[in-house]
Design a protein that fits this description.
The complex is a heterodimer of chains A (about 260) and B (about 325). Chain A has twelve helices and no strands. With about 260 residues, chain A is mainly α. Classes of the chains: A mainly alpha (about 260), B alpha/beta (about 325).
Amino acid sequence: MGAAATRAIYTIWLRDVKRFFRERSRILGMLLQPILFLVLVGNGIASSFQMAGAPAGFNYLEFMFPGIVGMTVLFSSVFSAMSVVWDREFGFLKEVVVAPVPRWTLAIGKALGGSTTAMIQGAIILIVAPLAGISLSLATVLKILVLLFVISLALASLGLVIAANLSSMEGFQIIMNFLIMPMFFLSGALFPLKNVATWMAVLTKIDPLTYGVDALRHVFYGQSALGSLLIQFPILTDLAVVILIGAVLLTAATVSFNRTA
Amino acid sequence: MAVIEVHDLQRRFGSVQAVRGVNFEVKEGEIFAFLGPNGAGKSTTISMLATLLHPTAGTAKVAGFDIVREPDRVRHSIGIVFQDPTLDDRLTAEENLQFHALLYNVDSRIVKERVPKLLEMVELLDRRKSLVRTFSGGMKRRLEIARGLLHHPKVLFLDEPTIGLDPQTRARIWEYVRGLRDQEGITVFMTTHYMDEAEVCDRIAVIDHGQIVALGTPSELKALVGGDVITLAANDQEKARQFIAAQYGEPIVTPSGLQFEVTGGETIIPELVARCPTPVRAISLRKPTLDDVFLKLTGREIRDEPPQNHRPRMARIHGGR
């Protein structure tokens, strides 16, 4: 990768990060949503939900928390990657496209920018972990951050592939309702996937977020009894799937940006 | 020395031939304008020269580099301001310039020295820390011009640089453009459909339906019209038309009356009014403008919608090249 490409990627990444810290209302909105989920949906379900084989003193919120972190990075990374559609509509994309830098750098820069900001948002959610009765060591937090970055990169790449094939922001709602929301519901963020019907189990297995959330639970619960009850796949399987899907999507994004942008 | 050389450049979109083989050269330090109505092929040509669009046929060189084979070198040598702003309005004026410098690999010491100078030139120095979303249309355009100059381009492309701006702002932007040419020796290639704007350029290519129909200095183009332009409105337009056609040549029908060209118009008017077979309601005489040139070359006024299947007449002063 040449110096020009590296600089271009850095520029596009920096722009996303700068804009992120500037839009405080957006940050606030994106933080309130998971907290709302946790406090209202979480407590509501916790009051009537009983998991088979759960150890004494099991708290649904403890189960839900990694899922909510997953939800945060899902919405944040897909949304920020899809903002490239706005850039196309309102012109900034053209400034990059006429610059003496390869077009694919735009995809990489956007993917890195989207995953950085998503990771930061996921990290901020960790502050309310005590609300769910979870305490995290520094080492665990660092592991979670690395994991969030990897998951976000895959999800941001997904957002870019969608954006490259979307001519205007009008398709955004459809994508949200028919792709992103189902990805969230099927990921095991809100309920364990072990006993769902076969058709649904199939869908959960093709949802990349399932592996991301599962990996998060590995890190959150470690070797505890809760872990062996709630974790679906070995951590290596989770990581391999997320990284593989991420690599495929990122490649697809760079190819389609080279073609369309 | 030619800084832009265009040879039989063509571009087709599906079955539509947007640019039908244009030839021209732009000299270093020149302000060169493409003048024509919307849809004439001006923006398509700029896009090809800026390496955003591949030509279907033909070749072009910008700053000595081939637009198809050496796009990165062309891109380093040009600055471009599009019709619609391409700024990031959530960033400050200064940040927009800094990002541009990063993309174009401008040395950071040069950026430090040049950014305040450019912002001062476009009178935005005191607003450098403001978010671009708080800027007016004219301020955005000025900032874009400053940004387009940051990497020391040889050629500055301006696509309808003053469209949608108020007259004062338009005049200011023109001041900058001329100042640039005088101080930095930069070549300016612009498109416009404002006649008064084309008037102050060094040379103009009149473009219609994807072809250059005339090319020359403003005075050379106006000489095409020949003499003075008389517009006459009469009670019976048909009678007046026959009379004028017999005496001075076939007039062009415009909303304000019948228009035709004469030499020594001042002496002709009294005789014309006296001998016209139908009462004259209004008559005016003026020196030719580029509007008249366009009307004469294409049979239409520039703001008109282009009629279907219209074939432009060719009238080249000195060939495109």
